[in-house]
Specification:
alpha/beta, 34% helix, globular, disordered C terminus
Length: 524
């Protein structure tokens, strides 16, 4: 999974932004007091981690922690509004349930929300502490001139898999008003975090955000053609290529020219990460951008018309098989061979790349510009990311996960038959590939994208054999231990037997002989 380019991380942190307002499927509203309610709700950024309760809401009292909550040791007796004191003379802890508001800064969003989750918060509101540059009201009230172009993306730092609660980031001027009411006026606030289900109809639209050098999604891309063609016109796919804006990552600055020349095209306008983080060898970021543009053109001419793109997937599969290595990634001969295998006209693709603005000179490329704008609208940071009906899927990117999401995205009664036929199968991908037959070729007990699986009967039989082997081993060990113990006892007793008997009687121990008469003395 790719989060940020390490070689450019210092340039990118805090600068990757997106226009969220028209693309989130959530709402933030204050219900009490009504004077703080806003028509349409508060503008906010939704976290890309945690588990939002789609179709539901969280309506609870708001607690302002008066802290950035970066320390795992959270003092629940602080914060606003103030509360009654207990026998110790301190304010009583935050009464559950509650939504916790914390300040932005110092540590990652994930760390803040994790600490809030540990103290029992049902949700988190992160109060921004930097104005948006276009927010005149906020800038006028600010004591400094520091600002940012848009709200930052609340991305997962790679450790957010244990977080279950949702989180929003609100703009500084809104956060300041809410905090003033709570701190200065001791106002109790009831706030609602609400989510709506994505718009559903009889066709599901989905898109995959990736880059040609990214490896996590390659197995998915190799297998997806055989799945996509089974859904026919019920689904529409859009491949997306993640390209960095050279201006945003400061590649237009003269001090970064040497580094960025190997990462970017079009006079450092469009950039990509260096796959091996070594600009002196291997595949360069510039070559990744060129291949990204090529794939955009392949889709434009061999996939966009039907949204299935069988020839597009042929191109991807053949490129991954033949050209996906440092020696051949940028080889024109290798790419031309891929065109032939996918039965494409190479001149059409080359003309498309040139007409869009090309990759040389200080030219604007229309297609690459569109990709940058699209990623800003979506708020894409982690690669690969797949969206189904404009909602980002969370968890592992597997064929089965995507098929489940697609089938769940149809309006009730409009899903294709294959969704119903395969809904109960253990390997839904193989079922789809087999036209809706669960026990089709290879069966549900063959390998698929989630790993190796076996039938219940085979698993039970194997488990029985394992138990039998352990049981037999335990019995043999017990039997051997018993014999060894008997031998040790004989040895111990023999040391205490008298060397000479009385009247010639044999005082040796007949161990285990129930017919022996007399008693045995260990004292001699």
């Amino acid at each position: 999974m790719i989060v940020l380019l390490p070689i450019l991380s210092s340039l990118l942190i805090g600068t990757v932004t997106a226009d969220t307002r028209d693309h989130v499927n959530s709402n933030l509203q204050i219900q009490i007091p009504s004077t703080l309610s806003k028509e349409g709700g508060y503008e906010h950024r939704e976290a890309l981690f945690g588990t939002p309760p789609y179709g539901g809401s969280i309506n609870q009292p708001l607690i302002y922690a008066d802290s950035d909550l970066c320390d795992a040791t959270v003092d629940r007796r602080k914060g606003y509004p103030t509360r009654d004191k207990d026998d110790s003379g301190q304010m009583i802890p935050w009464p559950s349930p509650f939504i916790l508001m914390v300040d932005r800064g110092t540590c990652s969003f994930v760390q803040k929300v994790r600490n809030a989750q540990h103290v029992g918060a049902a949700g988190v509101i992160i109060a921004d502490n930097i104005c948006i540059c276009t927010d005149e009201v906020c800038m006028a009230a600010s004591l400094d001139n520091i600002c940012e172009r848009a709200e930052p993306i609340m991305a997962d730092d790679g450790s957010g898999g244990d977080i279950d609660i949702p989180a929003f980031l609100i703009m500084k001027h809104d956060a300041d008003i809410i905090k003033t009411e709570m701190v200065d006026n001791n106002q109790n606030i009831q706030i609602q975090m609400k989510w709506t289900l994505p718009q559903q109809d009889d066709r599901v639209e989905y898109e995959l955000w990736t880059v040609p050098s990214e490896h996590v999604s390659k197995d998915f891309q190799k297998n997806w053609k055989s799945v996509a063609e089974k859904f026919k016109d019920h689904i529409y796919f859009t491949p997306r290529e993640y390209v960095y804006d050279g201006e945003r990552i400061d590649c237009l600055a003269e001090r970064n020219r040497n580094m960025c020349n190997t990462l970017c095209t079009n006079n450092r306008r469009y950039c990509a990460m260096d796959p091996d983080f070594d600009v002196t060898r291997g595949i360069s970021g510039r070559e990744v951008v060129i291949e990204s543009l090529r794939r955009i053109c392949v889709w434009k001419h061999y996939g966009e018309s039907d949204g299935i793109g069988l020839k597009y997937w042929d191109y991807i599969n053949n490129f991954l098989e033949k050209c996906d290595s440092p020696d051949f990634f940028a080889s024109e001969n290798c790419v031309n061979d891929v065109y032939k295998l996918a039965k494409m006209d190479s001149d059409i693709i080359k003309r498309c790349m040139i007409d869009s603005g090309g990759t040389e000179g200080d030219n604007i490329n229309t297609f690459l510009d569109l990709e940058i704008k699209a990623q800003e609208r979506r708020g894409v940071v982690v690669l690969p990311t797949i969206f189904v009906n404009a909602v980002a899927l969370r968890g592992a990117l597997t064929e089965n996960t995507v098929i489940h999401a697609i089938c769940a995205g149809f309006l009730d009664g409009t899903a294709p038959d294959i969704c119903n036929q395969c809904s109960g199968c253990s390997n839904i991908m193989l079922c789809v590939q087999s036209d809706g037959t669960c026990d089709g070729p290879s069966g549900s007990n063959s390998r698929h994208s989630d790993g190796d699986t076996v039938s219940k009967r085979s698993f039970g039989f194997t488990l029985l054999i394992v138990f039998a082997m352990f049981g037999t081993g335990a019995y043999l060990h017990w039997k051997k231990s018993k014999e060894d113990m008997r031998g040790e006892v004989r040895g111990i007793l023999s040391e205490y037997m008298p060397l000479e008997g009385n009247g010639g009687d044999d005082h040796g121990l007949a161990l285990g002989n129930t017919g022996a008469s007399g008693s045995t003395s260990f004292l001699g």
